[in-house]
Amino acid sequence: MADKTEVALDRTQVKKAVQALQAFLKTKSTSASLFLDEAQQMSLLFTLWKVPRQAQTIRIPLPHGQRPDTDEVCLFTRDEPNMTSEQTQRFYKRLLEEKGVKNISEIIPYKVLKTEYKPYEAKRRLLGNFDMFLSDDRVRRLLPSHLGKHFYQRKKEPLSVNLQSKHLARDIQRLIQGTNLKVTNKGCCCMARVGHSGMTADEVTENIEAAVQTVVAKLRMKGPVMKLIHLKSQTSVALPIYTSDLSLLTTVKEADKQAQTPKEKGGTAKKKAKQKQTENDTKQTDTAAEGKGVEKKVKKKKAAAEEEEEEEEEIPQLVPIETPSKKPKLEPLKKKQLEKAPKPAAVKKGTKAQSKLTKKTGKADSKVKRKVPKVK
């Protein structure tokens, strides 16, 4: 398998491409461009053999800086405890002066960013006033919600810096004069700035060689990585610098097969296990169904035998019941019952006598109560 570091650039071919691009940019320059930025960006277009599985951001230090000293750089810092926003600005200015950093034009604490740059217009103004943004690595994760999407659309998102490092000046200089390559998992092409039209051809070629080496070394991919490398500007055609051999295509396919075989083996083993489980389940269901069928047959046989026994028993003969021809007369019985029944008048007389006795006793009691002698 070919190693991914085997990317050899032809220096003469690279230099020819740089000179041709510079000549093209000079012909396109007009009198109107004198009032604008004369230096146009020159970028490298990398085409990979495969789409990366993971997104990645690669920092590329360049031997020759691609930014002029006049570029405005802004630094976002954290809020120091027991200090106001003005005191934190003074504190970090002293720190940068002590470390020998001179490229930072303004320092903005996190609290000031939340309060003063909260409106939409203030964020757009901040984006247009500076060419590059840096941030303290301790507050880097808090910035996206306060900056907005325009910083990321124009590729001016802040780069994190460790402000507590001993070599702070060197780290900041590498960030400002270097470049970044954003590798996404959505395609096989990515672009990085390498220089501008105001630089010499030798400086641009040296930057290109350094960028290619760092990108190939830091990419998280196995096997052959680079397929094509082009040099271009914003308005020019892409000029080829490097093309890989077609023999690497077979190695790429073999690497893909080797990466897929363990997955396929695992998948086949899982499929076989599932098939065995299904077969066992079907066998169990078949045995249960057979048992149920035997039981049903036995029950049917028993029922048939019982029916046969019932048919063999003797059926008793039906005897007709004799019914009387004439109905008996009930009228004389009713008359006899009425004659024998006692008269209720005696009961009424007894009740009247009892009621009279109760009335007489009540009157006697009342009279006894009245005969009580009076006390003088």
UniProtKB/TrEMBL annotation:
Its main location: nucleus. GO terms for cellular component: nucleolus. It holds the Pfam family Ribosomal_L1. Residues 306-315 have a biased composition (Acidic residues). It comes from Lates japonicus. Keywords: Acetylation, Coiled coil, Isopeptide bond, Nucleus, Phosphoprotein, Ubl conjugation. PANTHER family: RIBOSOMAL PROTEIN L7AE FAMILY MEMBER (PTHR23105). It is found in: Nucleus, Nucleolus. Belongs to the universal ribosomal protein uL1 family. Highly divergent. Residues 256-376 are annotated as: Disordered. InterPro entries: eL8/uL1-like, Ribosomal_uL1-like, Ribosomal_uL1/biogenesis, Ribosomal_uL1_3-a/b-sand. Residues 256-267, 324-342 have a biased composition (Basic and acidic residues). One of its GO terms (molecular function) is RNA binding. Regulates cellular senescence through inhibition of PTEN translation. Acts as a pro-apoptotic regulator in response to DNA damage. It comes from the Eukaryota. This is Ribosomal L1 domain-containing protein 1. The keyword Transit peptide does not apply.
